[in-house]
Design a protein that fits this description.
208 residues, mainly alpha, 63% helix, globular
């Protein structure tokens, strides 16, 4: 007989095999932001790679939703992490800012951009050897925000008013999505490194 739920069984339990463990809730804020964002991005990659490997229409047409939702979560958490780590705002202002931004990726991006002074911007451009890199990353973020402004379009098929979200038939190339998200990930990773080097420089711990 097919396994079914049973009274007394626990969904969240530790078990005995450490190779089956997942640890969470024991790190600081920065580490937890990384774990969440990293997990969302890697999971989305795995989902799309599997769908693309099989090429099966059922998987291609259904895996796009969790993959896009996870990618959006990755972008949102990464941007919020950048802002919380690097903004000189007080804790109270940071709380108010996040409440105001909610899930809007552009608003969150703009709050982070406000922390990038001219010197840091120059370091970012030099690091990537690309004068348009910040504008290009912003365009990717805007495209995702235009597609899903409130983190709702890939979580549910309908709005709170019971209206279909995706009304017209569309085609999304999943291989292209995978590649563009890898480019955005490379940008985010580069930003982290540049900020670290920049802070080390102004603290006279690192010399270019």
């Amino acid at each position: 007989m097919t396994n079914v739920p049973e009274i007394g069984k626990k969904i969240f339990e530790q078990g005995q095999n450490m190779r089956e463990y997942a640890f969470f809730g024991c790190n600081n804020v920065e580490d937890q932001f990384f774990s969440y964002a990293y997990g969302y991005k890697q999971s989305a990659d795995l989902i799309l790679n599997h769908a693309l490997k099989t090429g099966h229409p059922d998987k291609l047409d259904s895996y796009v939703f969790p993959a896009c939702f996870l990618y959006r979560q990755y972008i949102e958490l990464t941007l919020k992490d950048f802002y919380l780590r690097n903004s000189p705002d007080s804790e109270e202002i940071k709380q108010q800012t996040l409440i105001k931004c909610q899930h809007n990726l552009i608003d969150i991006w703009e709050t982070f951009k406000d922390t990038i002074n001219d010197d840091l911007k120059d370091y970012i451009i030099n690091f990537f050897n690309n004068a348009a890199i910040i504008d290009a990353a912003e365009d990717y973020i805007k495209q995702f925000n235009d597609e899903d402004r409130n983190s709702f379009a890939f979580r549910y098929p309908i709005t709170k008013k019971l209206e279909l979200i995706h009304v017209n038939r569309r085609i999304i190339n999943l291989q292209n999505l995978l590649e563009r998200m890898k480019e955005l990930e490379n940008f985010f990773d580069g930003i982290k490194e540049v900020i670290y080097l920049y802070i080390s420089l102004i603290n006279e711990d690192y010399y270019f």
